[in-house]
Amino acid sequence: MEIENRRRLHVISTGQQSREELVNISKTIHPYLDMLHIREKSWTGAELIKTVDELTAAGIPLRKLCINDRADIAYMKHARGVQLSHHSAPVSLVKERFPTLKIGSSVHSMQEARLACEEGADFLLYGNVYETTSKPGKKGTGIVNLEEIVLSIPLPVIAIGGMTPGRVADIVRTGVKGIAVLSGIFLAEDPLEAARAYYQAIHKEGKQLGETI
Hints:
Layout: E1 8-12, H1 19-29, E2 35-38, H2 45-57, E3 65-68, H3 71-76, E4 81-84, H4 91-97, E5 102-107, H5 110-119, E6 123-126, H6 143-152, E7 157-160, H7 168-172, E8 178-181, H8 183-186, H9 191-208
Parallel strand pairs: 1-2, 1-8, 2-3, 3-4, 4-5, 5-6, 6-7, 7-8
Helix pairs in contact: 1-2
């Protein structure tokens, strides 16, 4: 993910829908998103490969695809990147073996953010900023901690957790490079309208900050 002077919308699959639902929703919303994360922990490698094939056949460019955890599949299918978490292979090893991939690292603290930066991550997914149904019972880290990460770590930071169009203004003012949304789009009653609402909110705030959209 290049560091550009505009904010990004990352959309993450929920693990609660079939491949058919994921593909159908994705092909509808992709004009409004910058990165689509395939985050399906229970799917086999074969299912992930088939999903990538179906998404690209539906017109979604590979430059918008990020495969969670499976750097091997992301590399073989020429996806844009891979998203790693605490249970994944180390960022430094993935960077060494798959140098063409953009590597995102999911972090939850300053210590984790610094380690990911030192190991060569290309961007950070930080949260959860607010309480979210995706992680029931887990208190949000808050805006103050998000801003501290943004100011301290020289990497693009994508905020995740409880993101709503109404919260975008506060999030963008911290200096983040974007937001990530799961259920707010994929499980919305109208995913297309939801994606459009997030897109308009994030770019409206960007314009007010003098960014080129």
